[in-house]
Amino acid sequence: MKKILKRAAARTQQPAPAPTGCEELTNAPETDPAALTPGVCQECAELGEDNWSHLRMCLSCGHVGCCDSSPHQHATNHYRDTAHPVMRSHEPGESWRWCYVHDLMD
Ligand SMILES: [Zn+2]
Ligand SMILES: [Zn+2]
Ligand SMILES: [Zn+2]
Question: Per the database record, which ranges form the UBP-type domain (predicted)?
Fold first, then answer.
């Protein structure tokens, strides 16, 4: 009688897309929260400022803030104020994420 040995499937590909070592990007929710102020930086709107460069959305709470190329850098301010670690680009056609803790793009 012939005995057939089955080999375990070779692990050539890792399914996890997030960079290793970054729990924030790994644990970020798959479904983004709804933007609190779609298309507008919340703090700039309160200041009457409309001179931002790009917008970023916090994946913890949906806060929309302006990027570091903008005069007020409200997205980074939001991280400093709240410690919400991951944001996503809020620009049309962009879907990258950023972890403030590790300065890591995903
Ligand atoms: Zn991280
Ligand atoms: Zn702003
Ligand atoms: Zn937030």
Answer: 20-106
Res 30: pLDDT: 87
Residue 82: phi and psi, rounded to 5, are: -115, -20
**Rounded Cα gap, residues 48 and 64, in angstroms:** 15
- CATH code assigned to 32-105: 3.30.40.10
What is the residue extent of each domain of the chain? 32-105
Query: Distance (Å, rounded) from C-alpha 70 to C-alpha 82?
Result: 20
Separation between Cα atoms, residue 55 and residue 23, nearest integer Å: 24
Q: How much is the pTM?
A: 0.80
Distance (angstroms) between ligand 1 centre and the Cα of 88 equals 13
Output phi, psi for 43, to 5 deg: -70, -40
- Quote the ligand 1 centre to 22 CA distance (angstroms): 4
Can you tell me the distance from the alpha carbon of 5 to that of 19, in angstroms, rounded to the nearest whole number?
A: 35
What is the number of the ligand closest to the CA of 73?
A: 2
